[in-house]
Amino acid sequence: MTTGFFPIQRISYEGEGSCNPLAFRHYNPDEIILGKRMEEHLRFSCAYWHSFAWPGGDPFGGQTFDRPWFPDRMSDEMAAAKLKADVAFEMFTALGVPYFCFHDADIRPEGSNFSENTRNLEEMIDVIEEKMSETGVKLLWGTANLFSHRRYMAGASTNPDPDVFAFSAATIKSCMDATHRLKGENYVLWGGREGYETLLNTDLAREDQQMGRMLNLVVDYKHKIGFKGTILVEPKPQEPTKHQYDFDVATVYGFLKRHGLEKEVKVNIEQGHAILAGHTFEHELAMATALGILGSVDMNRNDYQSGWDTDQFPNNTPEVALAYYYILKAGGFTTGGTNFDAKLRRQSLDPVDLLAGHIGGMDICARGLKAAAALIEDGGLQKAIDERYQGWSSKTGQELLSDDIDLARIADKVIAENINPEPVSGRQEFLENYLNRFV
């Protein structure tokens, strides 16, 4: 028996010739790409929060969506949470996604204290565990919402009040327990307010110490309970705080190194956050690959004319192709996947719009994956890079990288060998044209 919220119970693959708006044109889960099923490469996941908890507001206006589980429609909060779970798993099943993700506050009502929050969470985990068993949908990752409630207005782990730190730590424990019970493949920490609004009231060194302490506690607890998943940190540069400490991949890596966690923690990279940091999505993925901390991705996009994180469904094949190019070059996902941390526009009011947004996003990712695989099979980009750096494989290149030579000897070598280099073209236009052949 279904709730009747969605007009269709299963989205099918109909191929590129289809004009059916509720069918996949490119996402064929069984298509073999580089020796593996497309579904296994992409590992799609739906975000519980944007799809079912977000009311359609923006910084200048409130709720536009009318959902039967919203407080203005249902006064029994636990019954509303259970109805929301029913609808969520109907959508996961209709789309055929293998995974979903959640914050604790997405799935359970807010209680009056920590104990009530935990009771509500545990009751809803019973419900969700049963639905996972019925549908076969798995948990990609769980996380704690440590940013929405007013108690977190000055941060969670970085809060000047140690009681907020303690409440946050206890909340993380309850969410890690839930993720472990549901056999989640990762646990994510996103410091939504781990940053500052003004330096006039901020002790940077102290807050860094507190944040490092919290993450070490998380890693210790992972090992204590035998959680086999990956701990992920999600970089984000700003919004809502002026400057957040997990600014980008490079900043997160520096933080991990500073606190001895670079072997324990990886990153969950979001396209929209990369843009806010002044980077491209592929830059952040390439950086994470170079540093050995690539874990998972949130697939969305920002409106390039807006100054905040708009979380729109992806629709740019070249951007997505380059993203999967670096993911595939890194060996593909292990515990990570492609989570749609994307939401409808506030004027897209109908339940069918939720399906359409995900269908379009999944098709774009499928097109991007196929283009990325073709780029790898052709090998042109890697060949161009290898040729550009081939001098470093020469005797001179190897000598310059060794500990047997210092600046004085290098200067003597330049004089003795009359080294007088001429610039070599980077051939950017050729490579851009080459890329466009595949997308």
Walkthrough of the structure:
Helix content is 46%, strand content 10%. By secondary structure, the chain is of the alpha/beta class. It has 2 domains: 32-378, TIM Barrel, CATH 3.20.20.150; 392-436, no CATH class.
What are the main properties of this structure?
439 residues, alpha/beta, 2 domains, eight-stranded parallel beta barrel, Xylose_isom_bac, magnesium, Xyl_isomerase-like_TIM-brl, xylose isomerase activity, EC 5.3.1.5
Q: From the 3D coordinates, which CATH architecture of the largest domain would you assign?
A: Alpha-Beta Barrel
Q: What is the CATH class name of the largest domain?
A: Alpha Beta
Range of helix content:
40-55%
Q: Kindly, what is the distance between the CA atoms of the first and last residues, rounded to a whole number of angstroms?
A: 42 Å
Query: Order of strands side by side in the largest beta sheet?
Result: 3-4-5-6-8-10-11-12
Mean pLDDT across every amino acid position: 96
For the CA atoms, what is the radius of gyration?
Answer: 24 Å
> Tally of extended strands?
12
What is the count of structural domains?
2
Look at the structure and name the CATH superfamily of the largest domain: Divalent-metal-dependent TIM barrel enzymes
CATH topology assignment of the largest domain:
TIM Barrel
Residue stretches low in confidence (pLDDT < 50, at least 5 long) are: none
